[in-house]
Design goal:
The complex is a heterodimer of chains A (89) and B (197). Chain A has 89 residues and is mainly alpha-helical. Chain A has four helices and no strands. In chain A, α1 packs parallel to α3. Chain B is mostly helical. Chain B has two domains: 73 residues, Orthogonal Bundle (Rna Polymerase Sigma Factor, Chain: A), CATH 1.10.1740; 96 residues, Arc Repressor Mutant, subunit A (Orthogonal Bundle). Chain B has eleven helices and no strands. The termini of chain B are far apart. Classes of the chains: A mainly alpha (89), B mainly alpha (197). At the A-B interface, α1, α3 and α4 of A face α1, α2, α3, α7 and α8 of B.
């Protein structure tokens, strides 16, 4: 089976480095084709595999630990009251 | 300030509909963003309130059905810079120019090789992650929030922050390295190092 073509290309047409591909993956700035290629690349590149695993763990932790904090109920009530006041004036 | 010139014409009923159906669903994300910027629940509340009142005042700059979340984040970020940053309780921890110069240098990727493992991260209870994020300079913190917590794309972030896409990309890269460095310090303080993992 032939190796798939690398769909990660720089603006000048040259191939992206592992770091470039990793960053695009982490930032969710990839096409489906690029994502598939990168997942295959992980099977053959241990440094990328380890870095990607670590970075994705950090991303997941950030999402689960830093999105908390309920909106104060009085904020919504006050806002609605102020908007209604603007509409009636 | 909301710089866009008004180009829509809405009835009062339409304005209220847009406000309730397109703006209000983002209030939780907006409050979290406000809190992560100010570190103070009252300031975050004031900031979000100001943002929503501005969004209503300038609602005719907003085209119905477009990206309300990015538009609101842009207003909040500008309000923070103009009204809150000056009186922020946060002490100035770093000289931003110094940080930017250092992290633009070629040394950065070689020097930042955090001794960090997935196993040590999983033992962190949440405060460490939050503290690490909070310890970043506001410009680095902001790109992490926008990308990793709110899942904005480069193009949206560039519009929210008024910076080129290339700057978004490089700032995000540096912010991730700084965050790893900070998490690595916590991991070391918890007793993790290369020899015992």
């Amino acid at each position: 089976m032939s190796k798939p073509n690398n769909p990660f290309l720089k603006e000048d047409g040259t191939k992206c480095t592992c770091m470039d591909m990793l960053q695009q993956m982490l930032d969710s700035e990839v096409t489906n084709e690029q994502r598939d290629y990168f997942k295959q690349h992980l099977d053959n590149c241990m440094p990328c595999y380890k870095t990607y695993d670590l970075e994705m763990t950090i991303k997941e932790l950030l999402k689960s630990k830093c999105c908390g904090g309920d909106v104060p109920p009085d904020l919504i009530i006050e806002l609605q009251a102020q908007i209604n006041q603007k509409i009636s004036t | 300030m909301v710089e866009e010139k008004p180009h829509q014409k809405y009835t009062e009923k339409e304005k209220k509909e847009i406000f309730n159906s397109e703006f209000m669903p983002h209030i939780r994300s907006m409050y979290n963003f406000g809190f992560r910027l100010t570190f103070d629940r009252d300031d975050a509340k004031d900031l979000v309130q100001d943002t929503y009142l501005k969004s209503y005042r300038f609602i005719e700059s907003f085209q119905k059905g477009t990206n309300a979340k990015a538009w609101l984040f842009r207003i909040l970020k500008n309000s923070f810079i103009n009204d809150y940053r000056k009186k922020s309780k946060e002490p100035s921890k770093v000289d931003y120019q110094e940080v930017e110069t250092y992290y633009n240098s070629d040394e950065v990727d070689r020097q930042i090789t955090p001794d960090l493992r997935v196993e040590s991260l999983k033992d962190m209870i949440g405060d460490e992650i939050s503290n690490a994020l909070n310890s970043l300079d506001v410009d680095f913190r902001t790109v992490i929030i926008l990308s990793d917590l709110e899942e904005f794309k480069y193009e949206e972030m560039a519009k929210i922050l008024d910076i080129p896409i290339g700057t978004v990309r490089s700032r995000l890269h540096r912010a991730r390295n700084l965050l790893k460095e900070k998490l690595s310090e916590y991991a070391k303080s918890m007793g993790y190092n290369k020899s015992n993992v």
